[in-house]
Every structure is written in C-alpha cells, then in structure tokens.
Amino acid sequence: MNLFQLFEDIEKIDGDMPERVSYYSRRNWLKMSRKVSTAVAAPTVLAASLNQAYAQASQTAVVDVLNFALTLEYLEDEYYRTALNTSGLIASDDQIIRQISKHEAAHVALLKGALGSAAIAKPTFKFGTVFSSQQTFLAVAQALEDTGVRAYKGQAGNLLGTDALTTALQIHSVEARHAAMIRRVRAQKGWISDPAEQPAAVYAGEDNTTQADVALPGATGKDAARVREAFDEPLTKEQVLAIAAPYLA
C-alpha cells in the first residue's frame, strides 16, 4: 500500500480536508502519513529479517545433518574398501560386497558434492580384528547397515522443507536394501525381527509396538513379532555416534 499516494488521491477529491481537520495541519498530515507508512513497512522488514535468520539457521542445520550422514558414509565406504583389500576375506566372485562398496563410494561422492567446501574431512578409522573372519566381518556390516538406516530416519525431521531431504531419502532406501541383503547373506530375515539382536545399542527401541500414538493391534502374543517387524525405529544422532565411536581413531 502506498499511503502517500492514498493521501494525494484524497486531496484531489477534497483539497481542503487537511486544513478542515483542526488537529492536523498539512505538515502534521504528511508527518502522520510517514509514521503510518513506516509502521506498515516495519512488519515487512521484520519478516524479511526473520526469514533471513531462519534461512541461515535452516542452512546450518542442513549442513550439520549432511556432514553427519557423510561421516557414516565415510565409515561404511572405508569398511568395505578395507574388507575387499584384506587377503582371503572376500571371495573373488562375491558381487554383493563389491556392489555395496561401490554404492557407499557413490554416497560419499554425492554428499561431498552437495556440501562443497562445507564437507568435513574423512576421519581416520580403526577396525581392530573385525576382518579376522568372514563371519565377524558380516556381523559388523549388518550392524553398520542397520544403524545407517535408522540414522537417516532419525534426521529426516531436520531436513523438512529442503531439497536435502530428497537426497537423504535416496540414500536411505538403498542403505535399507544393503541391510536386508547383508541380513539374508547371514541367513537371517531381511528385516529386524528380534529386538534383542546384538549389539544392543544398534537395536534399541525396536521392541516398540506403538506408532503415531496408536497402540497397534496384535502387539502381544504370537503376533507381536509381526507388529514389530512392520516398523523400523529411528536413532538419534547421539545414539548413532555412540555406536560409531569405537571405529573412530
């Protein structure tokens, strides 16, 4: 709204109006118009400032989440690379592990590209004796994949309204396929069935039978496992970092 134009239009119709209103001289009339105009403009300026501050805060949150995801992808990428370079651990015709390794490398490349100069450097990892046998390697791979799936889920809310959410979901669905594949290789169900699986921290909360404040039918008795299996729970950033901590040098 252009208040100066409004007042000018009024004066065109009734040029004596400012003078006829005894309280307002023509000078006070214009002075008042400027005050009102400023008051009307102030919320717009304030809104712009708030939007800018929110955008900055939102961008900071997105960078934090993507770097968190990048840390996990660095870990998984290094894990499979090391396994493939460990003599006698992975069979030459094992295309599953080789393909998962390629996926993890692609995830790292995508996140680094999205973050640009804000991307964190690759940490130094330590894996101890996890590559001493194929059974141990696969057990840890399963734990890492299951953790990754739940980690992405736990951060989705922080990416709402951003393009980064689509990127994260594109990675998340493939990580879920990795988890299912590793579990099947280990002769297990492709989904989390027993909340008492080990390590306990990886499967914390998987006994939940309430979703969106709805107590699910069949949550007890013989159908309890089916109900638990139908839903996967998120992990917080703190929970995930605690799981990953032993592998960070």
TrEMBL record:
Domain of life: Bacteria
Protein name: Ferritin-like domain-containing protein
Top-level taxonomy: Bacteria, Pseudomonadati, Bacteroidota, Cytophagia, Cytophagales
